[in-house]
Amino acid sequence: MIEFRPLAEEDLAQVEEWLARPHVARWWRDEIADTLAELRAAIEGRDASEQHVILLDGRPIGLIQTYLAADHPEWEAIVQVGPGVAGLDLFVGDEELIGRGLGPRIIAAFAREVVLARDGVDAVIATVEEANRRSWRAFEKAGFRHVRDVVEDGLPCRLLRLDRGAAASSGDPPGERR
Known about the structure:
Elements: E1 2-6, H1 12-20, H2 22-25, H3 32-43, E2 50-56, E3 59-68, H4 73-79, E4 85-92, H5 102-115, E5 123-129, H6 133-141, E6 145-152, E7 155-163, H7 164-169
Parallel strand pairs: 4-5
Antiparallel strand pairs: 1-2, 2-3, 3-4, 5-7, 6-7
Helix pairs in contact: 1-3, 5-6
């Protein structure tokens, strides 16, 4: 069973360990100290982003976050999505769980249960490096559609989007889209 719980101060040591793992560090390019400072700010209420631990059968396996694109002007300038759109980022810290179909299930559940459940959020987006095929395929399997290509931090990325109507009208179970 996939669940999400708010990130707490006592989770930061585990997050730091995950961030140092090669399979996470390859794609999560922010400095570990910077990421931990941002997470701490969110925990303390000094940042509006929502941070959650991903749980699989009650066991912590990764981190997932959401935030309004409009709250990050530099990123909004790249994605150009306007108000009412939230971003989503995640990683699975346990490498043995990669490639087992969990990604689409995690993304779909979080998008529907957390992000699109917020008042005033009409869509959720993610930018995924073009080279990270496994990740952008997971978003597509979760119901996101490729909107256009963008450049973020000098790297080609896919802008992927899931609109509230598409999420609500889908008859497929989360992550079961083919």
